[in-house]
Predict the structure.
Amino acid sequence: MSPAEERAVRTFAIGARAADLVVVKAMTRDLADTPAVANAYDSGQAGRRMKAAEALTAGALAASVISTKVRPARSIAGALAIAGSLVTRLAMTDAGASGSPDVCVGGQAA
C-alpha cells in the first residue's frame, strides 16, 4: 500500500473504533428504559464482559492513534480490536441467555 492508502486505512480504523465506543454507550443508555434488559448487560458475566470489551476497544483506539508514529502498534491495535469485538459478542450472548423470561426470541416466548 502507498503511504496515502495506509493513512486512509488508519483514519478509517480510528473512526470505526471511536464509533464503536459511542454506539455501545448509546445502546446502554437506551437499554436503561427497560430495567430487566439493562440489568442483564450490567451485572454478572455479561456485565464483566461488556466492561472488558470496552477496555479492549479503547485500547485498540489508543494503539491506532499511536500507530501513526509507531509501526508495531498497528498489530497491537488490530489484535485488541478483534478481541474487543469477540468479547462484545460473547457479552451479548450472555446477556440474552440471562435476560428476563418474558423476552421473546424468534417470535415465541422464551
The two ends are 50 Å apart (CA to CA). The chain is about 80% helix and 5% strand.
